[in-house]
Amino acid sequence: AKQIDGCSHCFYEDHFDKDIVYKRRLKRDLDKAIDNGEIYLEYQPQYDCQRKLLSGFEALVRWCHPDLGFISPVEFIPLAEESSQIIKLGNWILSEAISEAAKWDVAVTIAVNLSPVQFKQEGLIDVIRETLEVKNLPASRLELEITEGVLIQDSEQALKILKSLRAMGVKLAMDDFGTGYSSLAYLQKFPFDKLKIDRSFIHAMQANDQSLSIIRGMIGLARGLNMPVLAEGVETEIQHAILRSEGCNEVQGYLLGKPKRIEEYGHLLVDVQTY
Ligand code: C2E
Ligand code: CA
Ligand code: CA
Ligand code: CA
């Protein structure tokens, strides 16, 4: 294991990842992890690439386990979802991200990922409304990133919740767009404010012409629906330049900033930032 930020990173073989004993342990340890301060958030900047301005941050959850080191959200979020631990974790993430954003001098948005399981939580709307009130953040500063998973299971119920959130003034972004199933139908039916193109498309963009055509299609589609588009996983100047010229509205990725502790981005939070 190597040390990064005082948290060791262990790289396991695939078969270990699937180990039932290991998963059971993670689930058990997750219960105490929040109380023990092992869970924290990193923030990744999002930029308006047309005007070259900071537009927001996405909050991404991290777990530094005392014995096992850094554990990826790709690993523990699904476990938390199986056991409904995601409700406590998700509420903590919302509260933490909202209270952080309320401290900033620049009025950029804070994007928070919502699990489909959280969506089924009784009283999700009240939790969000109360958290915004207590932390004193205008609803329009909160953007919820939602995947299609939410819409598939009970789409009438989902539509009701999305409409209530929107009525409150909260922004809604469709996350991982293009990776799911029948995305196009959902775009028409559900009231999203933004479309996030999954990074797999951005990654493939330079490797083949089809990928660029798909991205072009997604941007055109969104424009037709009057919806801004954010491209995630932008790693190179070339990707950035192409996306910009194709009319993409926002970008996020290692090129412009990795997810980091908010203190590392203090310089972005004092004044309107161009790049
Ligand atoms: P996501 O919502 O699609 O988040 C984007 C992922 O891409 C993040 O991985 C981010 O660190 C990574 N990323 C950003 N820019 C680049 C880039 O330029 N290149 C590459 N290769 N990767 C980039 P991360 O933080 O490991 O999160 C993975 C997934 O875990 C997220 O995918 C999301 O589905 C889930 N997740 C993370 N934080 C939360 C959370 O607070 N709540 C929930 N429910 N899920 C979360
Ligand atoms: Ca996301
Ligand atoms: Ca994604
Ligand atoms: Ca996602």
Automatic annotation (TrEMBL):
| Record bears the keyword Transmembrane | yes
Please give the superkingdom of this protein's source: Bacteria
Name all EAL domain ranges: 23-273
Q: Which UniProt keywords apply?
A: Membrane, Transmembrane, Transmembrane helix
Q: Does the keyword Transmembrane apply?
A: yes
Q: What is this protein called?
A: EAL domain-containing protein
* Organism name: Kordiimonas pumila
- Which residues of the whole protein are included? 521 to 795 of 799
